[in-house]
Structures are given as structure tokens and as C-alpha cells.
Design brief:
InterPro entries: PDI, Thioredoxin-like_sf, Thioredoxin_domain. The chain is mainly α and about 160 residues long. It has a domain of about 80 residues: Glutaredoxin (3-Layer(aba) Sandwich). About 60% of the residues lie in helices and about 0% in strands. The chain is built from five helices and two strands; from the N terminus they run ααββααα. The chain is extended. The N and C termini lie far apart (about 85 Å).
Length: about 160
């Protein structure tokens, strides 16, 4: 598999969207492998944008299979802020809005966006927590109403039998 893996790495060497990496789990990479849950060798993991844990690759280990998977799953055009290749119209507009700014101004924008993102994530967590609490309450009420309905149906059935006597 190693020759095909190396060939894949060379094929995507200049890619903006695919990065092929080896980690030797028996040497210096042991910590990384443990953190990623690698138990057997060779293990192939792939990561999508924002995915820190990765997913296990289950396909073929030959070059054609590896390249086919990479093309279908990973080789998605990503926005290159320098060349604007692969950028959508809104991304180009964002880049153009910030072109010409100094390094310090760009750094300040990075900090600002990081703060906005952190605040949004916090707000999202709080909303998810509130939703879970409300969902729990709805489930509790639903269970109580289901039990009450079942009891009333039993009583109705029993009352119907009493009037027949």
C-alpha cells in the first residue's frame, strides 16, 4: 500500500483542498495515533473541514480506489484568498472588502471573527441545552398523559361493565 499512498501524496502535492499525510504510529507519531484512536496498521483516516476526530476510510487500498475516494469526497474546491480560485461570489466580495488592509487591521479582524464565533457557539450551546430541557419536560408530560389516558380507558371499560350488570 505504501507505494500507492506515496503516489497519491504526489498527485495531490499542490492541492488546496487535499492533504495526504503519513504518521508512523510506532515512533514519534505514537501520541497522535493514540489521540486519533488508531489501533491497527495501516489505518487511513480522513478529515473534512471542521472535523477534528476524522473518520475511518473503509475503501480499497490501491491507488485507483484511494484517488477515486479523494476525488469524490475530499477534492472540493476551496476558496483561495490570494488567487480567488474556487471562491464563491460572497467570498470574493468579502476578500475584496478586506484587500488593502494592513496586517494589523487583518489581525484585528481575525480576533473579532474569533470572538464572534465563540459567542455564537456559546449561544448555540445554551439554546441546545434549553431545547433539551424543554424536550425532557415535553416527554415527561407526554408520559403522564399517556398513563392518565390508559388509566381512564381502564376505568371506562370497568364502568361500562358495571352498568351492564
Amino acid at each position: 500500500m505504501k507505494p500507492d499512498w506515496d503516489k497519491l501524496g504526489k498527485h495531490y502535492a499542490d492541492s488546496d483542498s487535499v492533504l495526504i499525510v503519513d504518521v508512523d504510529c510506532t515512533a514519534a507519531g505514537q501520541g497522535v495515533c493514540q489521540k486519533m484512536g488508531v489501533k491497527g496498521y495501516p489505518t487511513i483516516k480522513y478529515f473534512m473541514a471542521g472535523d477534528k476526530k476524522g473518520k475511518d476510510y473503509q475503501g480499497g487500498r490501491d491507488f485507483a480506489s484511494l484517488k477515486g475516494f479523494a476525488e469524490k469526497t475530499l477534492n472540493k474546491a476551496s476558496c483561495n484568498a490570494v488567487t480567488k480560485n474556487g471562491c464563491k461570489a460572497n467570498e470574493v466580495a468579502f476578500i475584496e472588502k478586506h484587500e488593502g488592509k494592513s496586517v494589523d487591521e487583518i489581525k484585528a479582524e481575525v480576533v473579532s471573527k474569533a470572538e464572534e464565533l465563540a459567542a455564537l457557539k456559546k449561544e448555540k450551546r445554551e439554546a441546545e441545552k434549553a431545547y433539551k430541557e424543554q424536550e425532557k419536560e415535553y416527554k415527561r408530560k407526554e408520559l403522564l398523559l399517556t398513563k392518565a389516558s390508559a388509566i381512564l380507558k381502564q376505568m371506562e371499560k370497568h364502568a361500562g361493565k358495571k352498568t351492564e350488570l
